[in-house]
Write a structure and sequence with these properties.
- The chain is α+β, with helices and mostly antiparallel strands and 311 residues long.
- The protein has helices at 30-46, 68-88, 139-148, 154-157, 164-178, 183-191, 204-214, 233-239, 264-278, and strands spanning 4-7, 15-23, 55-63, 93-101, 105-114, 130-133, 196-199, 220-229, 257-261, 283-290, 299-310.
- Helix 2 links the parallel strand 3 (55-63) and strand 4 (93-101).
Length: 311
């Protein structure tokens, strides 16, 4: 699962839901990087439908390789970005740990005390259910293309697959998406009675879907038939199959929630509500089928020619 869910040792009917995550910076703006780190931590909680966070801690490593003056500025902006997005999520950062390190690292811990109605364990999917994704794919490629811009690597890595302007646009869309909370999706999971969910991060959409499928009680196969992605990343993915975006294994940072809903009507209503509340689209991306082999373990796959949705 995306979070630890443990019953309270002292209080009956209460559970402690918690998660932690951290990573290296992947954008130039330390304030935005702080927001991305906060959103990434909270997405684990949101994937279980926990939309109210009781406590957040920050984990921060300031780089020894950066001179003291710039290091102070960068560190302050990382903290400010992380804290600002935490407040947007309705929680204060009350502590954490800061160290000096060769590399900058940013992350945190989130925790909530919940009753069973407050979270949705990811194990109730069944055949006929529909899969919805709340953010586009392609953050890894968008970030790499941005790093190649204006360098000697551009011609070999990108060439005429993408213009510099389109590369910049793709990156800005990805950066904005990574810094956006999945809180609305968590709330709507309860309203629309989600069957299961996970957030899409380091294992890629198919990697996380496979983990979700294996966690289900029913015997089933989860199948992706559509891949929403940032406009501009597709030609780079085709030029660089090693990113494995079209295979479903491209790592995402602060990606969307992949939600399993009862049927098409419920899935469409969920997507409509996301658009109405957040002003951002969500997409029906797949289905839950009965397993071909009742003796085989649950699995996930992408159809041979999935619909590519460029946004």
């Amino acid at each position: 699962m995306d979070c630890s869910v443990q019953p309270s040792k002292k209080y009956k009917d209460l559970y402690v839901v918690s998660t932690t995550d951290f990573f290296f910076p992947l954008v130039d703006d330390p304030y935005i990087q702080g927001k991305i780190a906060c959103a990434n931590v909270l997405s684990d909680m949101y994937a279980l439908g926990v939309d109210s966070i009781d406590s957040m801690l920050m984990l921060l490593a300031a780089s020894l390789d950066v001179p003291e003056g710039p290091r102070f500025v960068v560190t302050r902006q990382l903290i400010r970005g992380f804290s600002d997005l935490a407040r947007e999520a309705g929680v204060e950062v009350t502590g954490g740990q800061t160290v000096l390190n060769p590399w900058t690292i940013i992350g945190g811990v989130a925790k909530s005390v919940c009753k069973t109605d407050d979270f949705i364990l990811p194990r109730r999917a069944e055949k006929g259910n529909v899969l919805v994704l709340t953010k586009p794919l392609g953050t890894q490629i968008a970030v790499n293309v941005k790093q190649w811009l204006g360098t000697a690597a551009w011609d070999d890595a990108v060439g005429d697959a993408l213009s510099p302007d389109d590369a910049e646009t793709a990156f800005l869309k990805a950066q904005s998406s990574m810094a956006r909370l999945n809180r609305t999706a968590a709330r709507l999971m309860h309203q629309h009675r989600a069957r299961a969910a996970t957030d899409v991060t380091g294992f890629g959409i198919l990697g996380h879907l496979a983990n979700l499928a294996e966690n289900q009680t029913a015997r089933l196969t989860m199948v992706l038939d559509a891949l929403p992605m940032f406009r501009g990343v597709l030609p780079v993915a085709q030029r660089h199959p090693e990113f494995k975006l079209l295979d479903g294994y491209s790592a995402e940072t602060s990606g969307g929630i992949l939600v399993c809903l009862e049927n098409d009507a419920v899935a469409r209503a969920f997507c409509d509500d996301i658009l109405r509340i957040d002003g951002q689209p969500a997409w029906i991306v797949g289905r839950v089928l009965e397993s071909d082999d009742p003796n085989a373990k649950n699995s996930a796959r992408i159809v041979e020619n999935p619909t590519i949705i460029q946004v």
